[in-house]
Amino acid sequence: MHINYRNVTFGDFHMTKDDASKNLHSPTLNTIMMVEAVLEDNEGSFLSIPELKNKLPKKVNHNTLMQILAYLEESNKITVSLKGISWAHNMSDKLQKLERKN
User: Fold this and answer.
1) What is the rounded distance in angstroms from the CA atom of residue 87 to the CA atom of residue 80?
2) Under a CB-based contact definition with an 8 Å cutoff, are residues 51 and 85 in contact?
3) Which of 6, 30, 35, 81 could make a disulfide contact with 17, Cβ separation 3.0–4.6 Å?
């Protein structure tokens, strides 16, 4: 299942680019990073949207979460399947070595 940011379909949720432009609230960087951290911490397992919401340390608006998931899939950081959402982003070997040094 692929989420196209211009025409988002995620389960029963559907949002077009026009709907997104009407949305006055965009995800903050902190919210995106919070969702990424939860998904990365659960790497190797599949989470449903309700499971993801329960694991988040702060409540996130459903539409905002859908925007974040669309962005993460578009940037190849997550995979979405019938089993759920899973972290898929792997750092390059150079980045992993650099992260270990620091």
Assistant:
1) 9
2) no
3) 6
Q: 80 in helix, strand or coil? A: strand
The DSSP line for 38-51 is HHHHTTTS-B-HHH
pLDDT digits 0-9 by tens, 65-93: 999 999 999 999 999 999 999 999 876 56
pLDDT of residue 5: 45
Can you list the domains of the chain with their CATH numbers?
Answer: 7-101 (1.10.10)
Task: For residues 9 and 74, give the distance between their C-alpha atoms in angstroms, rounded to a whole number.
Answer: 13
Strands (E), the chain: 7-10, 13-16, 78-81, 84-87
Tell me how far CA of residue 16 lies from CA of 77, 88, 101, in angstroms.
Answer: 22, 25, 43
